[in-house]
Structures are given as structure tokens and as C-alpha cells.
Amino acid sequence: MGKSFRLVLRACVALGVSAYVIAEDGEEQKPKHTIEQVMEKALKGGGLNKKVADGKASNEEKLQLLDMYISLLENKPPKGDNASWQKLAGATALAAAKVAVGRPGAEAELKKATNCKACHSEHKPAKKE
Ligand code: HEC
Q1: Protein residue closest via CA to atom 8 of ligand 1
Q2: Distance, CA of 13 to CA of 3 (rounded, Å)
Q3: pLDDT, tens digit, for every residue of 39-84?
Q4: Residue located nearest, by CA, to atom 41 of ligand 1
Q5: 114 CA distance to ligand 1 centroid (A)?
């Protein structure tokens, strides 16, 4: 029993350490992806968003996209008010969720929800060094 007990103990210590790291970051848990990561991976140059909106993505990719759009909501916008952000980012997550569960017409809704200009004009800082 000695060996497995030590393994369990070690796992508990490891979990305790990671919980501590999260706690040190403050009250709120860190978003899984930053806004910049989502832009780079999902939206820039078409990216995963286009693949999903064109109906060419696997189920796993659809869930990846949803995961990233949920992260948008976990972030605070660098510009603009939070209510508007919740609405615009929320629409991307809802549309991605509808695609993932196979709702008819969801791809068109996703294309509409990911209008770059509509969101950038509200929430993207004009210039950032
Ligand atoms: C729901 C809102 C939203 C939508 C939709 C959106 N963006 Fe963004 N995007 C942002 C925000 C906010 C930033 C600024 C992030 C920052 O500076 O922290 C940004 C920044 C970017 C950046 C710069 C990333 C960086 O490294 O700073 C690129 C590139 C980008 N978006 C591409 C796109 C493209 C292409 C589309 C459309 C296909 C799009 N975005 C749609 C909110 C959005």
C-alpha cells in the first residue's frame, strides 16, 4: 500500500500547488485564451471561424471554436463598455454553440456574429504598442 499511497499524496500536493497558483492570480480565474489568441487562431485571415462557418469543420473543431469564443466572454474588452462586449462576444459564442449542436441556419448566424468591423469599432483600441 505504501507506493500507491505516496502517489496519491503526491497528486494532492501537485493539485494544491496549482490551486495556489490560480489563487495568487486574484479572485477571478484567468481566461483560457486571451482575446489576441482568439483573434490569431480563430479569426485572422479566415482561420477556424471561416472553416466552421463554411461547414467544413469537424465536430472537434467546432468545439474548439466555441471554447475560444467562451474565452472572449471571460476577458474584459481593452476598449468600450462591458455590456456591449457581453452582447457582441456573447453572440459569437451563442452562434458557435448553435453550429456545434447542428441547429439549422447556424452557420449564417455565425458569419453575422463575427463581423470584424462591428466589433473592432467598439472594442479594439485604435493603436497599441
Ligand atoms: C466580438 C468582437 C470581435 C470580433 C467579432 C472580431 N474581433 Fe478582432 N479584436 C477584437 C478586440 C477586442 C481586439 C483587440 C484585442 C486587444 O488589443 O487586446 C481585436 C484584435 C484583433 C486583431 C489584432 C490582434 C492582436 O494581436 O492584437 C486581429 C488581427 C483581429 N482582431 C482580427 C479579426 C478579424 C479578421 C475578425 C473578423 C473575421 C475579427 N477580428 C472579429 C474583437 C473582435
Answers
A1: 39
A2: 15
A3: 999 999 989 999 999 999 999 999 999 999 999 999 999 999 999 9
A4: 116
A5: 10
